[in-house]
Amino acid sequence: MADQYILKMSDITKRFPGVLALDHVSLRVKKGEVHALLGENGAGKSTLMKILSGAYVKDEGEIEVFSQKSELGNPKAAEDLGISIIYQELNLIPTLTVAENIFLGCYKMSNPVKVNWKAVYQEADRLLEDLGVDVKSTDYIRDLGIAKQQMVEVAKALSKDAKIIIMDEPTAPLTERETKNLFRIVKKLKEEQVSIIYISHRLEEVMEICDRATVMRDGCTIKELDIANVTMDEIIRLMVGRELKEKFPRIEKQIGDEVIRVENLCAGSRVQNVSFSVRAGEVLCVGGLVGAGRTETVRAVFGLDARTDGRIYIDGKECNIRNPKDAISAGIGYVTEDRKGEGLILKLGVGENVTLAALDAFKTGIHLNLSKEKNTVKEYVSKLNIKTPSVYQKVENLSGGNQQKVVLAKWLLSKCRVLILDEPTRGIDVGAKIEVYSLINELAKEGKAILVITSEIPELLGICDRVVVMARGKVSGSLSREEADQESVMTLAVGAEERGKQHEA
Amino acid sequence: MKLKGKERKGTSYLGILIALVALCVVLTFASDSFLTASNLLNVSQQISTNFLIAIGMTFIILLGGIDLSVGSIIAVTGLMMGLMMKNWNMPVILSLLLGVAFASAVGLVTGLLITGFELPPFIATLGMMSIARGAAYTITEGQPIYTFPKGFLAITGRYGGIPVFTILIMVVMFAVAAYVLKYTKYGRYIYAIGGNENCAKLSGINVKKIKCIAYVISGFCCGVAAIVLTSRLDSAVPTNADGAELDAIAAVVIGGTSMTGGEGTLVGTIIGTMIIGVVANGLNLLNVPQGAQRMVKGGIIVLAVIVDVIRRKRSQKA
User: Fold this and answer.
1) Cα-Cα-Cα-Cα dihedral sign, residues A308, A310, A311, A312
2) Which domain holds residue A404?
3) N or C: which end of chain B has fewer CB within 10 A?
4) Residues 6+ apart with CB under 8 A from A392
5) Does residue A504 lie in a domain region?
6) Mutate to test the interface with B, among A321, A359, A364 (most CBs of B within 10 A)
7) Do A284 and A307 belong to one domain?
8) How confident is the model at residue A233 (pLDDT cuts 50, 70, 90)?
9) A interface test, pick of B2, B3, B206 with most A CB neighbours within 10 Å
10) Region A42-54: what's the mean pLDDT?
11) Which H/E stretch holds residue B131?
12) pLDDT given for residue A2 in this prediction
């Protein structure tokens, strides 16, 4: 029975200067199983997977693939053994087509000089068809949304005939429907005896799709589990190493007067006649599928994209918001979904990021009072419990959860009254998620009007006071907290879309 | 993983400072005439042009841009000032003010081309480089202007062997620029835009305005450099400061500023100009021919960037 393990990693140790990243970690994966690798950010999952995919070299330990000892010193060696990794940060070339990306580096040739493009595109189309995604092999990557790009990544891994596929947070940017689609593929791969190492912070998904799991914490293996025999709470306890009382903490708070009202907002084809309002102390969640126009709506509200029509009122007064500067002075803050691309300046320090939208507060004449700035930053770092060795630390060195708190601190410091959060917990670990939820609660209690876009329905239900659902650029419905459940939200998110398609047909 | 606290300032230019000191030590042993007051004062005067334009170039490169037009702007500005002083008999001070204003205006035009039409800085400044150089040849039909008024020459004159005003100009320009980068909102915005333009925009920063001003600053620095250079040479010719943009870019890069923007210090740039100046001076003292000198300079630029790349990789892994 020893052979049932397609992959055995034993006593893997990896040191970085000053850090013991992995301390005698073990991982065993059976043939044809979906194996979850669980742990908070910084637990060492990524390091372990980088060793498995050949990006890092282990310091100690043994790796056996197909019962053969293997060193896996470089990515090519791992690929040749049939190990493929789909990174969280997509690895595609925007200016090339889907097919060119899928087969990058291994194009079928008609002769030693000429690429057989026909075969390349046919093969790509076949792969995409298997995946059941609405992507053409001739599409350019730059024209695809993040969800579709993700699917191309999946197709790329499949094209390599991998026997072990590592998926790092594959569903983070996907909608429920796309996730279902991915799971269908995962199940199909399983039937074909492919093993999948599945990294995700969404435990619901892990419970649904995975057979076994390995839990890691602080660079050590904590436990190997059969998913069938554990509950989600047990897994969380193992991951965090402590009991988490509530996944979605709630607090008592007062809901006050209306702070922001958006009427008949139009912007491009993705935002049509959108109206909503948020009151002081209220958390309004915007649900819907990816591509429903939610991000586009808030971008237009924030002045990033041009409005073609519609009005925005703050405290009953109309605001002419033409650019982010106007939005900020009107009292709006915007935490974008793309933390690294839009939310932070990775090369700058924690302090410089936190004060970026509120430098005027530290100015006398033209002079910036740096020590006053530093003190204020320190205050926010401790208020938001941002784990950083100093206020000068570059934010690129912080974990996802702490980075998100830096973005939040920036908007808190800007004294915004309306805070828009777009997928605020994407790619951050369970512990940090709860901290973000608690922060949202506290901010609401302080009287801020909060708008949260989220594609995770449990999260949406867990934190909302009221829900607005969007589909195809329009508001398809509004639900009170009592009315909102998985089904009602999904019906509004999907139903409208289906109806829309029928009308077009 | 645990994080190690590191102060951002101070460490980034330590390496090149050591390199500069090492270079000076080597040259002291290689040539008797290197470590003499008169030679070092010569060096300070030789690097003055590059020093001044490299200040503006630091702003531009920190923003993630580039300015290829600086050498040409110096040439055309020098001729403009020459025309005003010599041919039109305008007062020296007024001529200089108008000259600097003219150079700043050229920078503004470049900035507007880049922000208004969204031209890549490389293309916009490449165009401006050619236009300004062409204008330099055109305004005096290729004729040089020389024997300037005494008041103008006094700017780079030596008093007790020391080029007092040249050094004063350099120190003041450096101090003001360093202050702006560190202690003003504008300086912070430069780093922010160079680090992540999208994030800067989202934080309410008027990116176009900041960029435009940076090109004006670069133009202004060229204007001041034109005064110093023309005065020192006592001649304005269309070929003045030919290739100066490359020296300025080299100084900034050797100084550790990232070509992609967002990271770097003015002190680094200044050390960079000193390294270039000291090397040129040292090679001259050692009678190395011009061709070989250029090869050495190219080698130093490449070496500096290699060292920088290695350093960055190390700090990322740690």
Assistant:
1) negative
2) 340-415
3) C
4) A349, A350, A351, B5, B6, B7, B8, B9
5) no
6) A359
7) yes
8) confident
9) B3
10) 85
11) helix B121-139
12) 47
